[in-house]
Write a structure and sequence with these properties.
Belongs to the short-chain dehydrogenases/reductases (SDR) family. Helix content is 43%, strand content 13%. The chain is an alpha/beta fold. The radius of gyration is 21 Å and the shape is globular. The structure holds nicotinamide-adenine-dinucleotide.
Length: 328
């Protein structure tokens, strides 16, 4: 199909849609209780979910596993390439929510084989995949050096970053997102099993405010997170008409294992109270505050949210770099 005929097809579809549902009708639909659409909730009832990077003790992945279980997921694969805390997490969640099947599994999020393997397992055991939360991260060890020497968690300077480190950031943070979108999107189109009648699903990837602007990470980390945001945008169009949504979350400064060194350093200096003070809420965030957004994006409550990058940063990325109330 030529570009011009594709464009004219889209235009005629759009005008047909507008002809069927005029804005005034839309308004009537919303205010007429009898015609109100089925309410959507943050419930994950009946949904099969996979989370990568769920293996750290204070991480966003772990907090999300709890949120997904609390909200009725039928099965949750908790995965990471480090497995020291995965089994105990599975046991704790199962004890609290016996109705949820929790499966701990070693998955390297950058391995085509591993990612496809865990998705195939979900299809084999449950017949469906509904949610994939691509949350694993690699962060340059030089961040640690930078924090300790300069006292700011902005990551390694470009002069201290070589091409190999740059590629490693892109490989882990970028490739893991690509594989998630590729394999999860394919699996979410499988129907006729596990009670799934129509294609659909939600892929959520953890990006960062570092992927939106400079100042929140090293150049390689920030660039890899910008790639994650772009893949959420492009991924949403890859699955057009299949009801598969792809969104990114952009956390600000969250207290997790990844940022532990920053928090420990500030505590040792007696400046812990200053962490996060540059955002309008003047505090840092905790993993459960990101998990609740992951839950929203995973659930049907966000059924019309697609291709977006949602900041969860206390307003950091919305504000200019001034201390609240001080202009000079
Ligand atoms: N904590 C923050 O302030 C912050 C800010 C912005 C974005 N993020 C993003 O949030 C996500 C979660 O990070 P977190 O803060 O919970 O950190 P975390 O260190 O607590 O968790 C990250 C997990 O990813 C795992 N991981 C790393 N490479 C992997 C791989 N190849 N395969 C599978 N697992 C792998 C680690 O083992 C770890 O358990 C990351 O994508 C991170 O970039 C965090």
């Amino acid at each position: 199909m030529s570009n011009s005929s594709a464009a004219s097809d889209r235009l005629s579809l759009l005008s047909a849609h507008l002809a069927v549902v005029a804005p005034s009708q839309l308004h009537r639909q919303q205010t007429n209780a009898a015609a109100a659409p089925t309410p959507v909730t943050t419930s994950l009832a009946g949904k099969v979910c996979i989370i990568t990077g769920a293996g750290s003790v204070h991480g966003i992945g772990r907090a999300s596993a709890w949120a997904f279980a609390q909200n009725g997921a039928v099965a949750i694969y908790i995965t990471d390439f480090r497995v020291d805390h995965l089994e105990s997490l599975a046991q704790e969640i199962t004890a609290a929510y016996p109705g949820v099947k929790v499966i701990a599994r070693r998955v390297d999020a950058t391995s085509d084989e591993d990612v496809k393997g865990v998705i195939d397992d979900a299809i084999e055991k449950f017949g469906r995949l509904d949610v994939f939360f691509a949350n694993a991260v690699w962060i340059d060890i030089l961040l640690v050096v930078c924090v300790q020497t300069a006292g700011v968690a902005t990551g390694a300077h470009i002069k201290d970053t070589d091409g190999q480190q740059f590629m490693e950031s892109m490989r882990i943070n970028g490739l893991s997102t690509f594989l998630a979108i590729k394999h999860a999107g394919a699996a979410m189109q499988i129907t006729g099993k596990g009670g799934k009648e129509k294609t659909g699903g939600s892929i959520v990837a953890t990006a960062s405010v570092a992927g939106v602007r400079s100042g929140a990470g090293s150049l390689d980390y920030s660039a890899s997170k910008a790639a994650v945001i772009n893949m959420a945008q492009c991924g949403s169009t890859q699955y057009a008409k299949a009801n598969i949504r792809v969104n990114a979350i952009c956390p600000g400064l969250i207290e997790t294992d990844m940022t532990k060194i920053t928090f420990d350093y500030a505590k040792a200096r007696g400046t812990a109270h200053k962490i996060g003070q540059l955002n309008p809420l003047a505090r840092y965030g905790v993993a459960s505050e990101v998990a609740s957004v992951a839950l929203f994006l995973a659930s049907d409550a966000s059924s019309y949210v697609n291709g977006q990058a949602w900041a969860v940063d206390g307003g950091l990325s919305a504000s200019l770099p001034v201390a609240p109330g001080r202009f000079f």
